[in-house]
Every structure is written in C-alpha cells, then in structure tokens.
Amino acid sequence: MEVSVMASSQANLRDTELCGDRDVLGFCCSNSNLNAQICYGKSKICFSKSIGWPKSSVRLAIKAVSQPEPVVSEKVSGETSTSSRKAKPADGVRLYVGLPLDSVSDCNAINHSRAIMAGLKALKLLGVDGVELPVFWGIAEKEAMGKYEWSGYLALAEMVQKVGLKLHVSLCFHASKEAKIPLPKWVSDVGKSRPSIFFADRSGQQYKECLSLTVDDIPVLDGKTPIQVYKEFCESFKTSFSPFMGSTITGISVGLGPDGELRYPSHHHQAKDNSIQGAEEFQCYDENMLNHLKQHAETLGNPLWGLSGPHDAPRNDQSPLSNFFNENGGSWESPYGDFFLSWYSDLLISHGDRLLSLAASTFSDTSVTLSAKVPLVHSWYRTRSHPSELTAGYYNTVNRDGYEEVAEMFSRNSTKMILPGMDLSDENQPNESLSSPELLLAQITAACRKHNVEVSGQNLMISGASRGFEQIKKNLSGENAVADLFTYQRMGASFFSPDHFPSFTAFVRSLDQPEVHSDDLPTIQEEAAESLPGKNLQMQAA
Amino acid sequence: MATVAVDPLIHHYRRKTPRLSPKLTTAKQSSLNYTRRLLSRGATFCSFKSPLRLAVRAGSTEAALAETSESTDVVFDKTFSLKRTAKVEGKILIRLNSGKDDKKWQLTVGCSLPGKWVLHWGVNYVNDIGSEWDQPPLEMRPPDSITIKDYAIETPLKKSSMALGSDIFYEVKIDFNLNSSITAINFVLKDEDTGAWYQHRGRDFKVPLTDYLQDDGNVVGSKKGFGIWPGALGQLSNMLLNSEGAQYDGEDGTSDLREPTQQKRGLEGFYEEHSIIKESLIDSSVSVSVRRSPETTKNSLHIETDLPGDIVVHWGVCKDEGKRWEIPAEPYPAETIVFKSKAMRTLLQRKDGGPGACGCFTLDDEYVGFLFVLKLDEDTWLNYNGNDFYIPLSNSSGLHTRSRLVESEKNEQQDVLERVESGSLPIPEKTTEANQAGSAYTDEIISEIRNLVSGISSEKSRKTKSKEAQETILQEIEKLAAEAYSIFRTAIPTFSETAISEAEAEVLPVKICSGTGTGFEIVCQGFNWESHRSGKWYLELHKKAAELSSRGFTVVWLPPPTESISPEGYMPKDLYNLNSRYGSIDELKVLVTRFHEVGIKVLGDAVLNHRCAHHKNQNGIWNIFGGRLNWDDRAVVADDPHFQGRGNKSSGDNFHAAPNIDHSQDFVRKDIREWLCWLRNEIGYDGWRLDFVRGFWGGYVKEYIDASEPYFAVGEYWDSLSYTYGEMDHNQDAHRQRIIDWINATNGTAGAFDVTTKGILHSALERCEYWRLSDQKGKPPGVVGWWPSRAVTFIENHDTGSTQGHWRFPGGKEMQGYAYILTHPGTPSVFYDHAFSNYGSEISELISVRNRNKIHCRSTIQITKADRDVYAAMIDEKVAMKIGPGHYEPPSGPQKWSLATEGNDYKVWEAS
C-alpha cells in the first residue's frame, strides 16, 4: 500500500540523511500525483494543516531533512559579535567606559541607577576593564566650603565594585553645561562680588565654568586660596574612598581647567559642532591676568607690551589667520608675539604644575595612578601659526614645540596624560579648517615618549559614529599604540542605542582579537547556498 | 453523543487515487465530531453536529460627539457619546437540496442578522488540482453577481420572502446542475457594512458535490484519506471545531459543542444552522458640565449619564496640564471612597424613574483639570478613546482643551472605547527605579566568565566551552544593553520629539539601524489584496493616517507603487512610473507627507525579484524592458527557460510568472540602487518591504540597503515549514535557520518576516497544542527566539489572508496571535484588515500596553508555561501574558501583577 511505502521511505530518509534525499527525489518523480502537487498552478499555499495529504508531507519532509542542521552561531543569536575577552596580554590596552556625567544628581542620588547597573553588567560581560566616574566639585562640595557629601558617589563606587569593574575617578573642578552641573553655589556667589575669579575675553565676556588660573594662590574663597580648597577636596575624597583606593579605584585624574582640560577657555563661545571655526580669543582680560601681564612686561623692561593683550588678535568673527596670526609677518612671529605667547602659556603650565603637585602629594600614599587631561586643539594645525593652540595656551607653532614643556611638567609630577580625540581622523575634518588631529596627536605623544609620560586615550565625539572606532583601533593597536588605557565616552542613551552599541561591542572584540578567529567567521555563506530549498516547489507572487 | 446518519450528501471522495487499496474501518467516533461509516455505495458519509457560533462582530467605532455650549457661569459643558457594543446572536443557514429533478440542485445560504451581506464564492472543477477556486459557469450565477478576478463571484444576499419568525432574513440561492463538472462550492460570507469576513478558521465554507456526480468512489477508510480535499471532511469538521473560536472553548474539543439543529435532512439534501454573534452598538452618553461659583472660587462639576445600573466614577484631579492624577482635599461627595490612595471612586446616584445616574463634585480652584473613567462593573470600564476623560476646570485651559477636542473630532473614529479591565486601573504610574537591579543570573555569568577566562587550558576546551557560553553571554549583554537603553532614553528629562532629532543629530550623525529602526517600531501593513479596487487607495489611507498614529503605529507599509501588470502591483513593469491602481505619484507623495506629519515612517514595497517586460525578443519571448530602465535580456536570469534570459543563473529561487532579474549584473544593481535612492528622495519613503527575497542573494539586498540607507527594512523570505504526515514538526529550527541565513546574508541590515512564528502559531492555536510555542531550549520557536531584533512578527498579510487566503490564520483566534506578537520581542506588524476590523480596539489596547511598558524588539522573554492548552510568558519582567483556554495567573513575586487587557483566550498583565 502506498501510504506505508511512503512512510518507510521517509523513515529511511531520516536515517540516511543526504543519501536518502536522493532516493526520495527519485521516488517523487515517479509519482505523478506528487508532481502535480508540486507544480500546481495558482496556489501559493506553502503548507497548512488542511493539506493532510501524506504525499505533501513527504515532500516537505524531504526539505526538512535536506536542510543542514541549524547553525546557531553568535551571528544568529545576537547581532553583536562579541565574546568574553581573552586573558589580556601584559601589554594590552585596558578599556574603560565613562559613566554619565550626571550619574549622581545634585542631591546625591544616583540617577537612573537601574540603567547604570544594567550597563555595568553589560560592560563587564563584554570584557571592559573599568569605568570612569566624573566627580563634580559642584555636587560633592555643593553646600558650603568643607562640607562634603560623598554618599552618591560612594554608592556608585560600591556598584562598580560589586560588578567587579575598576574605577577611574575624574575630579572635576569645573562645571558642566551639558549635564547642567554648576560650580558650587558658594563659589559662584563669590564670583558675583569678585568677577575677577573668572576668565574674561577682550570684550569682557566671562567664562564661569571654572576659576581663572590666576587666582590659584589668591585667597578669594572665604579666605582660602582655590589651591587650598582643591587640596582639601582631594584629601576628603581620599579619606572617604579609602576602602576603594588601590583596589577598585585604580586611577584618579585631576581637573585642570575648562572641561577638566589644561587650557584657557578660548573655545567656549564656539559652537560645539566642530563646524568651521572662527578665531578663538585670548582669555587674558580679567583683572588679575592684566595685572600679571603688566608686571611681567615691566620686569622685562617693556612696560608698553603689558598694557593689554595683542591689539590685533582677530575677534571671533574674523578669519583666524588674519592680523596677529597672519601666516606671513603676523606679529605672533615678532619679539612681542614671543613675549606674550610665552607668558600666556607659562602661566598655564605653572597652573598645571601647581595642581598636579598638589594631587601628587595628596595621593602619594595610595597606589592609584594620577593623570590629567590635555586638550587636542587640532584646528588650524596645518598652518604656521597654529592660532587655536596659541589662544588655548599652547605655544606651539611651526617654529616651536609647545608640548615639550607640558610633557616635562607631567613627567615631573609622575602624572599620566589623558589625550582625547583618538577617534578623530584627518580625512573627516573639514578641509577649510586646516586641522589635523592625527598629526597633533603624534606630536604630543612623541613629546610624552621623550619625557616618559604615559598616555591614556579618550574619544572626543560622544558615542560617535562607527568610523571613529577604526581610528581608535589604529591608535591603540599594533606597533604604534600610543596609549595603554582607553576611556570610551560615554555611557548613556545613545551609547546603548541599537545604532551604537553593536558597533561598540564589535570594537571591544576587535581590540582583543585583531585577527578574526576561525570560530567567528560566518560559516553561513556556503551553507546558505546549499540550503536553498529545492527550486520551484512553490510559487509565490508577493 | 448522538450522531445522525444521513445519506451521503456531503461526503468525501477520493477521485484521483483509485489504486489505493481500501482499508475498511468500523465506525469510529473521532474527536472531530463526525462519524465515518461505510455505506453500501462504498463512499464515506458523514453527519455533522454543527453548533457553530461564529464570532461576528461589527465594527464599533463612532465619533464621540462633543457639544459645547457657553453660558455665563458654565465653564464647560459637553456630552460624550458612549458607544458600547452588545452581542447579537444570529444564524447562518446552509441548505443543499435537490430541485425538480435529480440533476438540478440548489444551495441556499442565509443569514438571520441584519447587514449588507455578500456571498463571496467560487467552485472547484473536476480537473482542478489543489484547492484554488474557479469561477462558476455563467448559468450558475444568480442575478446581481459580480465577478471577482478570474476565480470568484460576489452575490448579494437578499431579504428573504421566507421569514424566520419575526426576524429579518437574508439569503441567496445558487442553482446548479449536477452534470456540470463541479466538485465543490466554496464560499465565505462578507458583511459589506463592516467589511468583515466570516469564514471558518480562516478557511472557506466548502460544500463538496462530487458524489452526486460519479458513483464510483472508493471506500476510504484510511485515516490518510481525509486530507485529500482540504475542504471536504477536514473543512466541515473544522467548522465544527471552529465554534470554539467564538464564544466558548471546548477545551477538549468536543464536549461543549451544542447539539446542532438539523432538519429536513435525508433526500432533501442537508440543512445546517450555525449560530453567529454580531456585536452591535448601544448608544449612551455622559454629560459633564462645570459651573464656576465666583463667591466660593470653587468649581462645581456635574456628571450625568443615561447608562443603566450602578455607575462608579473613578476620578482624580490634576494641577497642571500633565494630567497627573491627584487626590483632592476633602470634603468628598457622598458615596465616595479613596481607592488605593491614587484615585477617588464615587457612586453616581440613580435617577428616579428611568435608567441613568448623576453626581456632583465640588472642586477647589487650584485644580486645573478633572480626570475620570467610568466603571460599569468589575470588568468593564469606559474611557475616552483610550485616554481618561479630561475635563478642564479653569477657563483658559478649558478653551484650549476644547479646541483640541474639536480638532480631534475631525479625525474620524474618535470613539469612546470600551475597555475591559479588572484589578488595576488606568492610573498613571510613576516609574520607580529600584536601586538594586539586574538578575542574579547576570552575576552568575560574570563569575562564569572569570572562570572561563582563567580556566582556559586547552584550545579545544576553550572552543567548545566558550561557544556555548558565548551565546548566553551575548544574549545577556544584548538584554542588559536594551534595558539600559530603555531607561536612559526615557530618563532624559528634556526628551521630546524635537529634542531627539537635534540632540542625536548632533551627538551622533545618526545612522538608524535599518534592521530594526529604533527598536520600538510597530508596523501596520496599510493595504490588503483588494485595496487597488477603488483606484484611490492613497486618498483613502490619507484619512486614516492620524488614527494610525494615535493608535501607536510608527511605521506603515504601503503597497507596491509602480506600474504593474497585475493591479495589486506585484508584477512591476516600468519602475519609474509610479501611477498605479492605488493612485497617482502625486497622491502618493501627499500620502507620504501626511504620514510624516503624524510621525509615521513609510515603507515602500519594493519588488526586486522580477519585472515584466515591455517587448518581445526575436523569438517572441517577453524579455526586453522599456521605460527608463530599458534593460535587455542580459538582465534576466538564465535558468528560467520561459524567459530565455542571457544573464547568469539565479542566485535564489525563481518566480515563474515574470522574468526574474539577474542581480549579479552590475548595470542592474546600479539601476536598482539609483531607483531606490530616487524613491527615497522623490517620494520620501523611509524604508523598504522587500518582496520575494528568496529569489536572489541577500548580499545584493545589503548592497541596496547600504546605498539607499533606509530607516527600516524588512524582507519577505517565505518558504515551507517541515511537516511529517501532515502534522507540523515541533522543531522548525531548519525553517528559521533559512530565514536567519538570509538576514545574515544581508549583514543584518534588514529584518525578515517571522514566517516560522506564524506557522507555529497556526498549529498551536488550531489544534490546541500550545506546547509548540516553546522550543527545546525554552525560547520562542520562531525567528523571534533566535534573532528577535531582526524578526518582524505578523499573523497575516495580503497573501496569507485578505481575499487570497493562501494561508489564513486560524479564524477567530487572531487576537491570540496579536496578544502573542504585540507583547513579545521582535517588531510586530499588524495587518490592515485586522487593524480596521472589530479587533481594532483590542489591538490598540495591546499596542498601548506594549508602548506603556516600553517593550522593544530586543526585550527579554521568559516562557513561564507551555502546556497543551495554555502558553504564558513574561516580557522584560514588566508584562505577563497568556494565550489559550487553560488557566494561568502570573506568580506574585517581586512584581505585583494587574490585568492590563484581556479578550477571548488571552490575558495580559502589567507589573505595578
């Protein structure tokens, strides 16, 4: 009887797999009904219960058996191809991820702690080494001078410890517009009566997100100097976090100025979108700066040079390569230019030195690594005068290496240098800005190498495009790896978004496994070709 | 159980298989409620118990009319009309009887409910293979019949002269001659008023006739024989079984079925009645007026309704436009209790003499609005179009709200939805963030990784061990990332439509992942197989855009826009001619703009596999193209002899009705890339639904997607599941693997319709085998179980359902299907016919639960039960659901569950 024949052939099929396949195909051809079924005209029914016809089931069974076993590779179960990271070679790059700027709210609660917890676990599973936590002056010492409130940050450190990640703490003595975190209120209040504690540009516009470096040693804060206040802050931090020091907390960075970077806020009125920039302005017009300049000029016997900043420095809306910065014959190359620029950058470097030695002495009895951040002022780098760097406080021109002294200062304080912008590549910079993040990075890292300063990397574009990952990888891997630690900025909605997170996981994986292991190669391609179902069994119009 | 033996009027006959040796069996009661016996004639006959209760539910959407009147002290006065549905029971009658002589027979189909009934029918001929319909011969068609393409007829039912009691009665009679070679008559019933179709489990009514014709039928005792005519026994037994779809669910399939009404049997033919239930509207209203008393600076709010019974107003007040429920200060009106310190409940006072009730509330001046819903009984709540009723109290906001209301009334279907809930209420919930988070499971994995990393001894063990671990870890990471994402995303306080576009555009040059969109997409298929008929579908859909948006859809899939040989658009000819049977290119642009205005992304249906030619080649074969893309036969694949292509062999399956495009040709791909970009720019399409992607390699799809950068893309990879002896195999891994292989070939740039899930749902629901909904690893058995973010789940589309019905979802169980896909991960796609049917409000309810709980395509799912008659799962630990007739209640653990929505054999709970 036919039915039983079919049943047994199907059973064979199951046992013998592919050989059986051929048998049954032959069988099919000899059966006119089955052919009819296969080729029937309009129907597009693929299968349904009501076709309880044994023959149709045989046909389908053929397909079922002739399929390769399902391959559930990681490509299948998740779109990210990641795995736990292999044990790291000693010289491998450590990877950190920045926590949200507003991780701790101004009332010392952890913002969206569930998300952070989930995020920490995901990072741990991914094989990330640690996280970076920005600790804001305006939150921890918000109420009054000397009144510290660490509870929020302590809770967060505990979470990090629980998950088994390392923690890098950034002590932020600046405000963050982006995260709406101000300076401590009592500091801002001082600023109202004493505007000179803030930087100012030529038009008198103030920058109120951090204190001016000239007040470092002036007792403007209720009889204390900012340096003293910073120092006490660091001491209190050290005491409060002593259980974590050296174990969970492996690194601390000290904020040196705007956005934590060692620089003048020459960029603060710029649009942040990296569009074509105008000139940036010197920030030497607050009362203390001008006094200092005056004294300095008089000491050097050129009192006329100390009356104000460069009168012909281009304003915001002017071409940066005009007047003072003129490529040929601009006064930046004149003796006056040298006088001013040296003074301007020396002030910055000595400010950095003050803070770093403060931090070094404070944390000398712990095993944490100290670091501080230097900006990557890459605009106009391909010019002779480097106007953006000059206004930011780096006397780096075609004639002079401005980063040598900086690296030397870091070296003196045994501090690591954090360099952002490792995700930037030259080809993605607008041509008109003559910028070169890659060359600048190379220059700074060369200076660091020379002075044995270790470098940590960061990205500049927050959770940026996947192009950035390529560049980061380039900077971190191979012979020319410039950094041994990279902090990826920054956890948040866009970081975990479906558009970003998969590429991040791919990046993490590729950092560890530059060559793709054979396990990871999609085995699917050939199989897909094989697994195409027998042709024309059904037609399908739409 | 009584069975009625009759002459073989409807019976099964195996015409094509005479060589099958008959296997005699004795009469046997089967679970399908029919009895098979041998008759002397050697044919099988069966008798039916047919207590059918079809779920016939009329659409019930009407505008809530607001009448506003101004008077000096009346700040607000409005009457909301409340349309509730009530069930009306009726009958479908099917009679087959012989006429004057033995050759003339008559089939009568009637319906006892009022409505604009149309019989949509066709026949099978002797030589037909398969179960497709054909048009009946002309002499068989009753007057007023309209032909529907080449396979069906539509005949309106007329008021019958024969009254059935006092009821109005509609019927249609079809006369036919038994000498014609017709083997069966198939039909479905359609209510033109509502557009609803009445079938059986997604299949047609089928009346087999063959036995009258040829008397040489074999005795078919073998069980195998039953499926040969999908319609014959299977179909009618399905009809019987189907009754569970409507009102009661025979848990064991048979015991509950009602005794059929069988009359006039015997030589006359047969006569069956099937009870049907149609939901009809009951109009009620609630009037709200607010008076302001200047002396006391208090507002006095008066609610009056004509709803019968004890009506409880469940209410709160709010101090700002945020409509956050608060409890007012005392004193409260009489009969008021505070409910869970979240809301107030006031029992309205019954009116004397007649139904209706009213109540008065005195409110302090500080409150800006009064929010309420009406509670009719424990399970029945009335709200305003899915939202709370909101009554503005202060004058200024009153004007504002009024204008808003007026505006919204322009959008049709602003109705008061009946909402069935129990337990918890539509109280706005505060999202609380638990300090402790994450599962212990994750911690385990973390420690496991530590072991893994440290414990690598040999390369081999690493391979095997890590491969297993990797899968778990990957899923865990994806889950955690999705969790973090959803919280971060919503925790941004300034988060708003504009904020996203600005912030994201600045921070990341956003490339939305085309495989998933945002991950929170809900798709509506915006057409069915008949949408081309009016010739102005774009205009018709235009009117529905606002409603689709308000119901929570984020993506709409439009029909193929190009000039096409077939009116439905799937046989494209000139790709750059976008004047189709759905409307003109300009109308299309207007429609797309309209969807964008209401925040809906638009998918174009791109048919890339095949293209109809303009000219013949020298051999008279149609394979030379015209129009802007005037390809020659090099653009046609070589391995389809019908079209004599000179291209390479096809990289996929062939579709035989038109020349298949050879995508391996550079010029073809270039042209297609350009065309897609043109559609993006010119029309404004945001993404693609890619037709018949089985026909070519997924790598080409990746190329097209990379070039056109869609916001969202989904491909149709539709092939067969595996069956053994007509039963679907439990394990459909091979099937989903093929779909996943395709997605992989596209590099994940496109999602794919989860055909596997649909197929498994069919079997599970149809046969009450809910255990099928869990695979061996305890995960969903479809694509959604393996690659949720790329699975576009659906239960029906224009091919499987609509008027084609190639693979229709089990009838009456659609809502179970939606309860599954709208709560589960993956990107759900709702079919137009369902979105705008009487299921519409239930579907909207499920969508709002999904959105409220931020379930997305990567949400986690834990299957909590997969038994014979019930399937239950928990999603993101925020939503619990069950489908199937069996009992299930979510366990009370860390979450407290409250019922969010329920319907026929499904329930959904939310954690509170």
Written account of the structure:
The complex is a heterodimer of chains A (542) and B (912). In chain A, helix 1 runs antiparallel to helix 2 and helix 12 runs parallel beside helix 14 (403-412). The longest helix of chain A has 28 residues, at 335-362. In chain A, strand 9 (455-458), helix 16 (466-476) and strand 10 form a beta-alpha-beta unit. Chain A has 19 helices and 10 strands. Chain A starts with a helix and ends in an 11-residue tail after the last helix. Chain A has helices at 2-16, 18-29, 32-39, 54-66, 74-77, 113-126, 137-140, 151-163, 185-193, 226-240, 287-299, 335-362, 387-392, 403-412, 437-450, 466-476, 493-496, 501-512, 524-531; strands spanning 94-98, 130-136, 166-172, 199-200, 206-207, 249-254, 369-373, 416-419, 455-458, 485-488. Chain B is of the alpha+beta class. Chain B is 22% helix and 26% strand. Chain B is globular, with a radius of gyration of 30 Å. Chain B starts with 27 loop residues before the first strand and ends with a strand. The interface between A and B is large, with 105 and 130 residues.
Structural key phrases:
heterodimer, A: 542 residues, alpha/beta, 8-stranded parallel beta barrel, two-stranded antiparallel ribbon, 19 helices, globular, disordered N terminus, disordered C terminus, B: 912 residues, alpha+beta, 9-stranded mixed beta sheet, 8-stranded parallel barrel, 42 strands, 22% helix
What is the topological layout?
The complex is a heterodimer of chains A (542) and B (912).
Chain A: H1 2-16, H2 18-29, H3 32-39, H4 54-66, H5 74-77, E1 94-98, H6 113-126, E2 130-136, H7 137-140, H8 151-163, E3 166-172, H9 185-193, E4 199-200, E5 206-207, H10 226-240, E6 249-254, H11 287-299, H12 335-362, E7 369-373, H13 387-392, H14 403-412, E8 416-419, H15 437-450, E9 455-458, H16 466-476, E10 485-488, H17 493-496, H18 501-512, H19 524-531
Parallel strand pairs in A: 1-2, 1-10, 2-3, 3-6, 6-7, 7-8, 8-9, 9-10
Antiparallel strand pairs in A: 4-5
Chain B: E1 28-29, E2 35-38, E3 44-45, E4 52-55, E5 74-98, E6 104-111, E7 117-125, E8 146-148, E9 152-156, E10 158-159, E11 170-177, E12 182-191, E13 196-198, E14 205-208, H1 210-213, H2 233-246, E15 269-293, E16 298-305, E17 312-318, E18 336-339, E19 343-347, E20 349-350, E21 357-364, E22 369-377, E23 380-382, E24 389-392, H3 395-410, E25 418-420, H4 440-454, H5 459-491, H6 497-507, E26 523-525, H7 537-542, H8 545-550, E27 555-557, H9 585-597, E28 601-606, E29 615-616, E30 622-624, H10 666-683, E31 687-690, H11 698-708, E32 712-715, E33 723-724, E34 727-728, H12 733-745, E35 751-753, H13 755-766, H14 783-786, E36 791-793, H15 814-821, E37 827-831, H16 832-835, H17 840-852, E38 861-866, E39 871-875, E40 879-883, E41 897-903, E42 906-911
Parallel strand pairs in B: 4-15, 26-27, 26-37, 27-28, 28-31, 31-32, 32-35, 35-36, 36-37
Antiparallel strand pairs in B: 1-2, 2-3, 5-6, 5-15, 6-11, 7-9, 7-12, 8-9, 10-11, 12-13, 12-14, 15-16, 16-21, 17-19, 17-22, 18-19, 20-21, 22-23, 22-24, 23-25, 29-30, 33-34, 38-39, 39-40, 40-42, 41-42
Helix pairs in contact in B: 4-5, 10-11, 11-12
